[in-house]
Amino acid sequence: MKNRIIIVFAIAGSGFLNRPVFSQNISQQQEPFKGVIGRTVAESKAAWTAQIKAPAGAPNIVWILLDDVGFGASSTFGGQISTPTFDDLANNGLRYTNFHTAGVCAPSRAALLTGRNHHDVHMGMFAHTFMTGGFPGYDGRIPSDKGTIAEILRESGYNTFAVGKYGVTPDEDATDAGPFDRWPSGKGFEHFFGFLGSQTDQYKPDLVEDNAHVTPDGRHLNEQITDKAISFIDRQQNAKSGKPFFLYYAPGATHAPHQVATQWSDAYKGKFDKGWDVFREEVFKKQKQLGLIPANGVLPERNPNIKAWASLSADEKKLYARFMEVYAGYLTYTDHEIGRVINHLKEIKQLDNTLVFVVIGDNGASKEGTLNGDIDRALFSKPLPEEENIKYNLSKIDQIGKPEGTEVNYPLGWAQAANTPFKFWKTDANAEGATRNPLIVYYPKGIKEKGGIRTQYGHVIDLLPTTIDYIGIKAPEFIRGIKQDSIQGTSLVYSFDNAHAPSKHTEQLYYIFGARAIYKDGWKAGLPYSKQFLNLYDPASLVQDENAWELYNLNNDFNERIDLAKRYPEKLAELKALFEEQAKKHHLYPFITYDDLVKGKLRKD
């Protein structure tokens, strides 16, 4: 018998002919029938299912999450890159200066969306096949009992949209054949437009709309996702449903490749010629003036292997300055596109009714550009010798920021500068330079203080409970019939009206690729993977000393300058024991390191 395709049409008696049979949208849990059914209508009692509504007066919610932005990059937090949209939101809202991420993108995003620590939602690393590891804390598959903010809000009467980078869909699920339960549509978002992976070309993105890949139109991705976000909002508003909406706006910016039109990058020509050392000093001074860091703070020394700007050749200075001009233009352009969304909300008279959270970076500034910057070499490719790499990059300096610059990322000196006032960078989960990112909270109706600064300790797992606490809803016990695990984050609402309230989030665990830390009541113990770790192909950089734990009192040493491990061994031992206890509780075992990745220990047979 020849193979045949069998098509079955099912037509519901209620006549919903326009409803897709294979819809991936999440339906609200069907309530059990509470009436009476007799043989006739007269003998029966009808019971109507009530429409789920958000609490009266519930605001729209907008979450904005940028990628690979250091603490000291934006003008809003003392940096030299203009971000007027963020400035305006912060000047009319609150700046949180002690807010934290997981230290790298997918773990931060999974923790943010679920309100739970990243290993608890199986995102100890990434959702990429070669990194998932096959262990519960690392398999890259967010379980259904760890519902997302979108699922919670949708079940609570909100419309839900997402645009930009999703970053937590397993690679093997990321085709048009699905399965779609770990795509945005399977995690509570009614509409999605963006990309599923960790990074994409900004002009030729791996673009998805709802449950299918689509062809990009050649414009910069930031412009495309902004247009789509505005269209989602307008369609929702035009329906006049009375529902509030939740928008998750997560551009690929400013992750590599750094690509932006020259009108944005050229605006910074010559502005970084003084170099990264002067940049750090000037930003540090500005941060003090703004009250963002302690007035008696001291700027840490340059990270290991970063050369003094004054020691560089003229060619190096020219090359490295151009990398930073492009990065700066990229960030300013991203701020501009976010401003289009904010201005549109103002035009349709919804901004005053919208609670906005802006997390400026899912981790610290990126070290992936290596010491000399990158233009078009594949990520994780073996780096060229320094002189050869500089010569190669100089020959292609005009490609930096252009569509043909497919892997553009600035050199490490600028990554440290963007992380001012902290040490180290992305993935160094032991260091504040990897995990401390700015947070802005803006809500004209509810936040009385304008331009306030908050120093309470926070983490990305706190945004979900903060959001639902402020709205006045509870995390559901069940989502789609699946009993939910507890939320682990702490609401920050207590700090909205009280700058001096003591922190309620008092303990936090960190672990990325071997680098680890435990925070408790202002004290922090951390174990670096390697202070010299810059090169996956250098065996010396893959050696970790388990006895190299460091200890800092962040209450009076906020940027980790003074290691107290030898002075207070009892405190260090106490925190190390707490780390081990929390590691077991939150599924960190087995510890997976860079060495395991490089040697292929996680490959599937």
UniProtKB/TrEMBL annotation:
On the tree of life, the source organism's domain of life is: Bacteria
Task: Kindly give the InterPro entries that the UniProt entry links to this protein.
Answer: Alkaline_phosphatase_core_sf (IPR017850), Sulfatase (IPR050738), Sulfatase_CS (IPR024607), Sulfatase_N (IPR000917)
**Is Metal-binding there in the keyword field?**
yes
Q: Which SUPFAM superfamilies match?
A: Alkaline phosphatase-like (SSF53649)
Statement: the UniProt record of this protein carries the keyword ATP-binding? no
Q: Name one GO molecular function term.
A: hydrolase activity
Q: Which UniProt keywords apply?
A: Calcium, Hydrolase, Metal-binding
Q: Which residues form the Sulfatase N-terminal domain?
A: 59-473
Matching Pfam families: Sulfatase
Which family does the UniProt entry place this protein in?
Belongs to the sulfatase family.
What PANTHER family does this protein map onto? Answer: ARYLSULFATASE FAMILY MEMBER (PTHR42693), BLL2667 PROTEIN (PTHR42693:SF43)
Tell me the protein's name: Sulfatase
